[in-house]
Write a structure and sequence with these properties.
9 strands; binds N-carbamoyl-L-aspartate; single chain; Rossmann fold; five-stranded parallel beta sheet
């Protein structure tokens, strides 16, 4: 049985926890209607201090499909933080109404801070450039659905590896499983931060850093595309220079294995040409759906709700 109160970082999850959540999510995928009353009478609070389409709606849809209800806000401007209320007070207040909270905030560590005063479980739905563990659960469920295993994969991660929190979370988790190799594909300015490398990799880890996508795409089993994170840049001119560093198109897809899958946490800007959407290896919109199912599984686990 999963033994965490909150989900703040992908490091909170052991391999066993991940299998437990993914197994439950796989059951939900097969027969979602069996779970439609599991959270009757429960309330999820969604506190989004930073923009989001998928993550917030995915949490909302997940709780709806479990029979629960949702309250919250989708921008900081509509909360009492504009009056000067501290994050901890806002979260503590909402935890009097809600049984579980999903929150997104532009500052690294915000979800952890919230968890110190909340009277209910906190799920980190993204804290600055730090972590995004429920996107990682989404990615892991997608990999398990298409590849039927979480081991022995060569994973190419492309784009903004510096600010991309989904990448930081995903590498940590996939490194727990045997014999996964990482190819880190980015411009020099957007390389995976040293602190993430130190936290994740040890002498046995297999990874390399390259700049050219075409060179390594034939090796990849999974290609994880990311957008250049405009809002986290200090200089607009640097963003403009780097924003089109990688564009995956049908020409480049010809170089890839027939069973490679392309993932993207979305939103996409320019990094995947829309012509690629028709390629059966492009699974990023199915990934969106798996995100809802895996959040259903996570909410059930943290609320200790079950269908037994
Ligand atoms: C990601 C995020 O917010 O970090 N999106 C998401 O949650 N699906 C990726 C991004 O914004 O680029």
């Amino acid at each position: 049985m999963i033994n965490i109160k909150n989900l703040l970082s992908s490091e909170d999850l052991t391999k066993e926890d991940l299998y437990e959540i993914v197994d439950l999510a796989n059951e939900i995928v097969k027969s979602p209607e069996d779970f439609s009353h599991i959270c009757d009478g429960k309330i999820l609070g969604t506190l989004f201090f930073e923009p989001s389409t998928r993550t917030r709606l995915s949490f909302t849809a997940a709780m709806d499909r479990l029979g629960g209800k949702v309250l919250g806000f989708s921008e900081a401007g509509s909360s009492s933080t504009t009056k000067g209320e501290s994050l901890q007070d806002t979260v503590r207040t909402v935890s009097q109404y809600a049984d579980i909270i999903a929150m997104r905030h532009p500052q690294e560590g915000a979800a952890y801070l919230a968890s110190l005063t909340a009277d209910c479980p906190i799920i980190n739905a993204g804290d600055g450039g730090h972590q995004h563990p429920t996107q990682t659960l989404t990615d892991v469920l997608t990999i398990s659905q298409y590849k039927h295993s979480l081991e022995n994969h060569t994973i190419g991660l492309v784009g903004d590896l510096k600010y991309g929190r989904t990448v930081h979370s995903l590498i940590k988790v996939m490194n727990l499983f045997d014999n996964n190799k990482f190819i880190l594909i980015s411009p020099d300015e957007l390389k995976l931060p040293q602190y993430v490398k130190e936290e994740v990799f040890d002498a046995n880890s297999q990874y390399k850093e390259v700049r050219n996508l075409e060179e390594v795409i034939p090796e990849c089993d999974i290609l994880y595309m990311t957008r250049i994170q405009k809002e986290r840049f200090f200089s607009q001119s640097q963003y403009t220079r780097l924003k089109d560093s990688y564009v995956l198109d049908c020409e480049k897809m010809k170089l890839a294995k027939d069973d490679m899958i392309v993932l993207h946490p979305l939103p996409r800007v320019n990094e995947i040409a829309t012509e690629v959407d028709k390629d059966p290896r492009a699974v990023y919109f199915n990934q969106v759906k798996f995100g809802m199912y895996v959040r259903m599984a996570l909410i059930m686990k943290l609320l200790e709700a079950n269908n037994a």
